[in-house]
Task: inverse folding
């Protein structure tokens, strides 16, 4: 008979059933959260199972329904629940195995559509990072020594398995982040698979430079992996951005210690399961979950992590740069944006309108590339505004599982409050809310905001200067090219911009003068993975994508040989 009385480690068959065979610590906390979220009917069902278990395992000590809520019963309840209702517990993935955090503590993970806790995240700390770095360091020699074909094959296996698990991953991403399932299925998950595939195959076609000194000397450039790469990613496109960093790091021959956002950790956890399933070499990819201030900074500060790739907010980027600079780490920072969407009066208006709807509100406006400041030339301002607002009002906000929903939930309560506080600020700054501007009521209980358009603000106000990162855009008229360029370039950010015009010369002229790392002409969010991706000014340092990423994750070494 398995022992079932220890509060810290459990090895009963029931635990194995509920937690996929992995020993679980701190089940007590987990059970308490589960109980909180259960209906009476579900509690009753659990009770029946508990009774049944009592006959099997005499060490159980409950006596009735009331005892389900006693501290002793907490220990056992999750072990008895059907797998479908069990609280999901995320684990770190270190050296090819799933591990609880050393602290034994877990953080609540919320479903933003319901506002309820649905899983637990390891509250890891520097000691877990230490284990991960140690594993990554040990794995570096063998991983970097593999042939490109071998590395590529391992990565293609991961890519293939992501595609095979598309439906499950898309559901998980939607539950974790609040985005519509259809979007995760169409954008996030396929792109995660593509990231692995793209870099796995890119390394097969790599080349480097050779400099001939008139036949007297020959220089050639070796591009070698650096060691353990630290990859830290945000919550808005969880698996998409996580793999966008991990894949080039691994393909170049580095090993990785990665941290997904603590707000959306689930698909990173599923990725670690995929690595296990496909037999990805142990220690090559390590995933440590937890808070940015603990896990993120421990990765950033670790002396054996010489290269950091970070995507997130500008303020966090500054903190990371401050930590990394004295250690002379190689740093790639993809940060915030306040992107202009410029609409000239000679544009294809229908196209500009429908694409602007997307570029304003896709992913609830939580894409760093969303155009949050719309500038419309005076000749078409009123027509654009009227039609745009009408279209925005038609956008359905609600259950992310529903295929006709355009906007799902905002990722967290804190972010929901932040976005709505900006609407209030905009009103104080003299703005007029043309539509939206408040919580979208649903019967789900989560955090939803109506898509919002605000007019009448000046360029220097905070609403037009600060990143809101939600379903809120401002709209303002302009007269001349020079004027709109001054507006567009007039923030501390410089990530992306969009220009709508049918004048080819103007398109090129304006694109050249925009202070952003990316310019889309008559389109938005068209991504070719070979192109450089990143921002200028406070939107970031360095570039991701294509060769830029592979170069970032390698160190160029010049070798010089005399020929005479
Ligand atoms: P944050 O900067 O808050 O967090 C990003 C990641 O950094 C998270 O994993 C976070 O962990 C971690 N982190 C937080 N503090 C530290 C620290 N001191 N040291 C190391 N890591 C830390 O960004 P958000 O997750 O809120 O993402 C939204 C932001 O990301 C927006 O500003 C958006 O513009 C930007 N972004 C930029 C993109 C680009 O390509 N330029 C693309 C997508 C988003 P935790 O979650 O635990 O806080």
Result:
């Amino acid at each position: 008979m398995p022992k079932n009385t220890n509060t810290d480690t459990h090895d009963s068959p029931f635990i194995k059933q509920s937690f996929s065979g992995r020993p679980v610590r701190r089940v007590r906390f987990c059970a308490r959260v589960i109980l909180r979220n259960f209906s009476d009917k579900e509690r009753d069902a659990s009770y029946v199972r508990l009774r049944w278990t009592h006959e099997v395992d005499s060490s159980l000590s409950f006596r009735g329904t009331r005892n389900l809520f006693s501290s002793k019963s907490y220990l056992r309840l999750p072990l008895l629940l059907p797998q479908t209702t069990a609280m999901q517990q995320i684990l770190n993935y270190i050296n090819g195995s799933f591990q609880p955090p050393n602290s034994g503590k877990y953080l609540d993970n919320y479903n933003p559509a319901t506002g309820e806790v649905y899983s637990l995240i390891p509250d890891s700390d520097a000691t877990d990072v230490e284990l991960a770095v140690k594993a990554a360091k040990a794995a570096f020699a063998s991983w970097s020594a593999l042939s490109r074909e071998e590395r590529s094959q391992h990565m293609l296996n991961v890519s293939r398995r992501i595609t095979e698990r598309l439906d499950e991953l898309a559901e998980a991403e939607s539950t974790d982040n609040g985005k519509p399932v259809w979007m995760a299925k169409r954008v996030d998950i396929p792109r995660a698979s593509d990231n692995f595939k793209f870099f796995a195959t890119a390394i097969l076609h790599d080349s480097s430079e050779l400099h001939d000194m008139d036949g007297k000397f020959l220089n050639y450039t070796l591009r070698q992996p650096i060691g353990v790469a630290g990859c830290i990613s945000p919550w808005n496109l969880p698996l998409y951005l996580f793999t966008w960093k991990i894949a080039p790091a691994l393909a170049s021959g580095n090993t990785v210690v990665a941290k997904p956002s603590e707000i959306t950790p689930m698909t990173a956890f599923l990725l670690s399961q995929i690595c296990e399933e496909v037999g990805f070499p142990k220690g090559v990819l390590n995933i440590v979950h937890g808070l940015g201030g603990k896990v993120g900074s421990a990765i950033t500060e670790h002396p054996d992590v010489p290269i950091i790739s970070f995507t997130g907010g500008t303020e966090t980027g500054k903190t990371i740069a401050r930590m990394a600079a004295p250690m002379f780490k190689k740093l790639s920072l993809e940060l915030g944006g306040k992107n202009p969407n410029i609409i000239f009066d000679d544009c294809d208006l229908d196209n500009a309108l429908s694409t602007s709807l997307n570029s304003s509100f896709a992913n609830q406006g939580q894409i760093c590339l969303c155009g949050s400041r719309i500038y419309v030339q005076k000749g078409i301002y009123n027509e654009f505004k009227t039609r745009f607002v009408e279209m925005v009002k038609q956008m359905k906000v609600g259950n992310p599982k529903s295929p006709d929903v355009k906007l799902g939930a905002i990722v967290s309560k804190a972010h929901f409050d932040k976005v709505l506080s900006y609407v209030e600020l905009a009103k104080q700054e003299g703005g007029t809310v043309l539509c939206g501007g408040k919580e979208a009521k649903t019967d789900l209980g989560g955090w939803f905001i109506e898509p919002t358009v605000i007019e009448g603000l000046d360029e220097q106000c905070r609403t037009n200067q600060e990143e809101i990162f939600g379903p809120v855009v401002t709209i303002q008229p302009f007269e001349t090219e020079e004027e709109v360029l001054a507006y567009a370039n007039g923030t501390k950010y410089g990530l992306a911009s969009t220009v709508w015009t049918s004048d080819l010369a103007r398109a090129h002229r304006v694109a050249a003068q925009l202070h952003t790392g990316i310019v889309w002409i008559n389109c938005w969010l068209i991504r070719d993975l070979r192109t450089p991706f990143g921002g200028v000014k406070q939107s970031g340092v360095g570039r991701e994508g294509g060769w830029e990423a592979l170069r970032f994750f390698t160190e160029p070494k010049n070798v010089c040989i005399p020929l005479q």
DSSP finds 20 helices and 21 strands in the chain.
